[in-house]
Specification:
Asp/Glu/hydantoin_racemase, Hydantoin_racemase-like, globular, Rossmann fold, alpha/beta, 8 strands, Aspartate/glutamate racemase family protein, four-stranded parallel beta sheet, Iso_Racemase_Enz_sf
């Protein structure tokens, strides 16, 4: 049995974590692979500034630092920011998969241009960073926001009637006005809207969280992982220091 660790980017209760686990219902995976969801113990309240992005990188590094030693075969990061992905790849040899860049690369497989559908404008710098790293700014038709502040704990639960039509209207404008051939949901917190949008839009809609689960399964079956030429191991690893900072931060937060 292969085991995959899914790192959830905020501290949360079991009930809140369950809403993240529901993403597994959107993809049929083999019987020989299991996914464990682990929230970080420290981190920002939301991803709205460079301050938050730095804390996010550390929080996910802290949460996944020992994944390989714990017997996991792969790591998935449950945020479109891909926070901590590069740092974990430098420390681990098992596959580490973030949904942001992989959703964009898959969208490029499906059409000429894609749009990213988001809840609010404060997320836009995250996508701009990844697009720049991939050299794909010219492949992004648009990043459209519906101007609704997200809830990273409750997600879209209870807001479906209000939010889903707004997402559909914005996504349709991505197609009709911006020329998008595919739509990427801008956050794993939006996964509950995927089926609604996919049934009503004339182009593919990428659900980034479940995509990473499938990619993790594929990487393991094909015996593929990231290149250590791109993500070299540190000359002087500091895992004890990382754990100590994480523990101190968690104690302070409590």
């Amino acid at each position: 049995m292969k085991r995959v660790l899914v790192i959830v980017p905020f501290p949360m209760t079991d009930e809140e974590l369950g809403r993240r686990k529901d993403q597994l219902k959107s993809v049929k995976l083999g019987p020989d692979i299991a996914f464990d969801f682990r929230p970080v113990r420290v981190g920002p309240a939301n991803y709205t500034s460079q301050h938050d992005f730095t804390l996010a990188d550390f929080s996910i590094l802290d949460a996944g630092l020992d994944a390989q030693a714990e017997g996991y075969d792969a790591v998935c990061i449950d945020t479109m920011s891909d926070s901590g992905m590069s740092a974990l790849r430098s420390l681990l040899t098992i596959p580490v998969i973030g949904p942001g860049r992989h959703a964009m690369l898959v969208a490029q497989m499906l059409g000429e241009k894609f749009s990213i559908l988001v809840m609010w404008d404060r997320w836009k710098p995250l996508y701009a960073k990844t697009l720049g790293e991939l050299g794909m700014r010219d492949k992004c038709a648009s990043i459209r926001s519906i101007g609704v502040r997200p809830d990273n704990k409750a997600l879209l639960s209870g807001k479906e009637d209000a939010v889903f039509p707004l997402l559909l209207e914005a996504a349709q404008r991505c197609v009709d006005e911006d020329g998008a051939d595919a739509i990427i949901l801008g956050s794993t917190t939006m996964h509950q809207a995927h089926a609604y949008l996919a049934e009503r839009l004339p182009v593919p809609v990428i659900n980034p969280g479940p995509l990473t689960y499938r990619l993790a399964e594929t990487a393991l079956r094909l015996k593929l992982t990231h290149s250590k030429a791109t993500y070299p191991a540190p000359l002087v690893p500091k895992p004890d220091m990382i754990r100590a900072i994480g523990a101190a931060g968690a104690a302070k937060g409590a």
